[in-house]
Amino acid sequence: MNTRAIVMYCIFAGLTALAFGPIGLIIFLCYFIPAIVAYMRDTQHALAIEILNFFLGWTLLGWVGALIWAVCDSTKIVSAVPVGSTSETE
Asked: What is the pTM of this model?
């Protein structure tokens, strides 16, 4: 999971709440749901989803497209090789 991006969203959410109150915070969080979902699922294209959400999220089509991409995108593949094992057979 990209904790740096999540911390960034938390900071912006806090500043939004200070500037615009709780309604601004709710609007901010709803707007960035696709990007938050992408980072929470640790998808391969999380940054691209965030960029799409940021620039085209104001259109309903861009927001829905980013959300579908965030939900359907595959997660990052992690190698499952145990520590100390070799790839050669004995």
From this structure: 0.71
